[in-house]
Amino acid sequence: MSRQPGRMLCLLLILTAWPSSSQADDALPRRTEWGLAVEPLADGAPGLRVRALPAQGAGERAGLRLDDVISHVNGRAVRGLADWRAAQARVPAGDALTLTLVRAGQLTERRLQPLPAPSEAHACCDVLYDSVLDAAGRRVRTIVTRPHGLPQRRPALLFVGRLTCDTVELPDTGGDGWAHALRDLTRRSGFVVMRVEKAGVGDSQGDCAATDFATELSAYQAALGALRAATFVDPHAVFLFGAELGGAMAPLLAADAAPRGIAVWGTFARTWLEHVLERERRRLTLAGEAPAAISDALRALAEWHAASQPQPLPDALRARAALAPLWRGGPGTFDGRPSAYFQQVQALNLAAAWARVDAPVLTLYGAHDWLASRADHESIAAWSPARRRCVAVPRVDQSFSAYPSARQAYAQQAGQIDLGALDTLRQWMREVLGAGAR
């Protein structure tokens, strides 16, 4: 008999009463930095191009140059970003490594010594690094910011992240729209805020590209339990904020935790296949594809997802070679995640999960977010039996950038960071807390 992932996992929590220092007495060591940023090659060929080298970083010290193409790490091939993340997880912290690269058509090697990663620092808050165990027994990094000078127990917010395997550890300045949004949430909310690194990302053990949905959900369940148990958190005033796929996790987390409220941003509510097909239709329309070509692509995409449900992705593609161009990822993955991840998401009944939520709900979406739909956010609000609100943020896409038009948002032209959605979130949380006080 199948069960919802939110109901079936036993959790193990550790270190729920953090000290006041910026580094908790945690068994999970801090990562090291390789000092370079990479990206896939434009023609889809194996390897990764060096696109940035921070000054005085490990990459610059090793003699790397912009536009070098990395083909191997310690003799193992690096075909794309999934291989790169796996290599970072595989190399022990502090060990030197050998990069094989192509420069001006010639093979060469460079020896790179990673440097210790700096810890986050915010003038407003203590930054507490800790960890929890997921259902696979791996330690997963949690990062908690606690505002200075506040009473002993404060309201708190757990950020439930996106599908992507990107880090949620924050640079002091800059970064993409998500980095701006998380910094703003951390520094201006007045709440205790927790973020969770996915398996194999940052300090976390494991491999994000091999982690399924149920195991990832278990990490957030453990993190939520640790947050509620912290001595400086009011366990009756803990909110969830789910972004994109994290919005689908939010009602599952609520099943056993009774949050004070749930907010979601740029998420979906129907089955995964419905969501993917609708998203792809919007994408192809904005890209200027002809209607007939869009229909052909969607029919093939539906067949591809149907084929990948009962069997691993490589087996599905070998049986249907014509669908191979639709495969976005490395061997055995799609969008950087394994087939089991999407099989488990497809099995969810999110309408039923939201109907069981007995807490106020806020659904937020950007009017120029082509990855999500207005209908899904309105459906969540309609399905939730408690107080609910649905808010559209004008001109904004899912990455908190505002654009003059939907096509410019898709092309990422003339965008500016716009964090108005977070003002709405903060106001709503204060209203929910105020209503409870009355």
Element layout with pairings:
Layout (H helix, E strand, L loop, with lengths): L4 H4 L23 E2 L3 E4 L7 E5 L5 H4 L7 E5 L2 E2 L3 H10 L6 E7 L2 E7 L2 E2 L8 E9 L5 E9 L6 E7 L16 H12 L3 E5 L16 H17 L3 E11 L2 H12 L3 E5 L6 H15 L4 H18 L4 H7 L13 E2 L2 E2 H8 L3 H6 L5 E6 L7 H10 L4 E6 L7 E2 L3 H6 L4 E2 L2 H18 L1
Parallel strand pairs: 11-12, 11-13, 13-14, 14-17, 17-18
Antiparallel strand pairs: 1-8, 2-3, 3-4, 4-5, 4-6, 6-7, 9-10, 10-12, 15-16, 19-20
Helix pairs in contact: 5-6, 7-8
Could you please describe the fold and organization of this structure?
The chain folds into 3 domains: about 5-15 and about 120-270 and about 350-435, Rossmann fold, CATH 3.40.50.1820; about 35-115, Pdz3 Domain (Roll), CATH 2.30.42; about 270-345, no CATH class. Helix content is about 35%, strand content about 25%. It has helices spanning about 5-10, 60, 80-90, 175-190, 215-230, 245-255, 270-285, 290-310, 315-320, 340-345, 350-355, 375-385, 405-410, 420-435; strands at about 30-35, 35-40, 50, 70-75, 75, 95-105, 105-110, 115, 125-135, 140-145, 155-160, 190-195, 235-245, 260-265, 335, 335-340, 360-365, 390-395, 400, 415. It has an 8-stranded mixed beta sheet with strand order 9-10-12-11-13-14-17-18, with helices on both faces. A hairpin with a 7-residue loop joins strand 2 and strand 3. The longest helix has 18 residues, at about 290-310. Residues about 1-25 have low confidence and may be disordered.
Q: What keyword list fits this structure?
A:
eight-stranded mixed beta sheet; Rossmann fold; alpha/beta; 20 strands; 438 residues; 34% helix; 3 domains; Pdz3 Domain
